[in-house]
Amino acid sequence: MKIKRRMVQKLITINPGAHALDALNQLHQHSIGQLPVVDGDEFIGMVSEADLRQVLLLPGGDEITIDEIMNKEPATIGPEENLEEAAKLIYHYKLDALPVLDDDKLVGIITVSDILAAFIEIMGVLQASSRIDVVLGENPEAFEKVSGIIKQSGGDILSVGMGDAPEKNKKFYFFRLKKCDVDTIADSISDNGYEVVSVIE
Questions:
Q1: Boundary-marking domain end, from 72, 98, 119
Q2: Which of the listed residues 53, 62, 146, 196 has the most CB atoms within 10 Å of its CB?
């Protein structure tokens, strides 16, 4: 899924000449953890609540301007990149959000909450569902065959992922299905020669 489909486009920003206390008040007013810093149309950095709180502890800290505090080289991402790439950057740099730039122009923000919501939607975990974990082996056609067995047996696949079965040292695929008679589907998969690792109703 592309970043542009999930990013927040209604942006709260601050200019580099604003004072630290003004920025902190904006963060609290909008219940956010950091602000993009823009000079006209140009994105020039990010400032976080942690940055501001450290500065405000200093004598005269409330008069210090954002351009003295901001991160001038924050991690960024483009609107055509995938959510997976945003998740990697956020995890690697321990961020709450990433500015989204298109030709150096700020066009959005993607947050941890945005990414989590997208993955929850993709995985279908908030829907009533069943799950079957199956070892597919080395046959490249196995995935297509097992998917076909599930559909022929009345199953409706919501999402598919991969995992490990440590006790068996094997990779398995988990098929998340709309709530159904999952035991019957699992029996059909086993009858066709595939190893069912677990079934969750």
A1: 119
A2: 146
